DNA sequence: TTTATTATTGCAACATAATCGCATTAATAA
DNA sequence: TTATTAATGCGATTATGTTGCAATAATAAA
């Protein structure tokens, strides 16, 4: 399915890259300039994830957050990083800190989802 | 609020400890012998979490899983561990592997939720 | 044992997150 | 300019989890 460029996609991607933080669907719908339907936002975000332009983070609040990929490397081995969710300013940011782990023999990892929750510097 | 011992609580806790793996509400309802209302299961699980008898894991499938605490130490400093979710047998298990990280100055962590998803040994 | 207190439970309603079917619109190729 | 089909809006639907309330039952008090 060949992708097409639309105002909606551009606006969402632009917002995510400018924010520099991961955003949830409702935050995007709230903070974006144009009116975009909820289902459409999800579809756009999911396609971005499929294309490796954005990565998805599921927080312990049960919501999905989406972050513009910067060092998520497409060809290179994806180096997983921690995420920090501030319960005060309700943002999620990608941390530099990488996730290191070793698994028991026979286990195969496909996804890594690591989130630290608490209060960020600005809110402390 | 003083806690009371009931057949429901005992059955849920017994199932969790026997399974040795984290279970979701629907899995518990499905695999437990007696009939327990959905809301009740959640209430029981939440109270177990409050009491530190069980710990909660939110997976990237957006669901909550509950695991009987073994080394989650009540008094001792809680040492966070990784969790592994097998998409084949649909189970989540606590790994021995501890989670290590260092945060930027000013950040304060309250919760740690780290999940690796893939295929477990049995299902490989 | 009997009675009183109130934690626990079931049930229905509610809240929220996310997805899906379908008709319409519009980006892009022909 | 026309044809093709990806993208969108809208309403309905599914899924997870919580909450209010009346009924039930565990435990303390008499
Ligand atoms: Mn990230
Ligand atoms: Mn665990
Ligand atoms: Zn903050
Ligand atoms: Zn498995």
From TrEMBL, chains A, B:
It comes from the Bacteria. Zn(2+) binds at residues 86, 89, 120, 123. Binds 1 Mn(2+) or Fe(2+) ion per subunit. InterPro entries: FUR (IPR002481), WH-like_DNA-bd_sf (IPR036388), WH_DNA-bd_sf (IPR036390). Its cofactor is Mn(2+); Fe(2+); Zn(2+). Fe cation binds at residues 80, 97. This is Transcriptional repressor. Pfam families: FUR. One of its GO terms (biological process) is negative regulation of DNA-templated transcription. GO terms for molecular function: DNA-binding transcription factor activity; transcription cis-regulatory region binding; zinc ion binding.
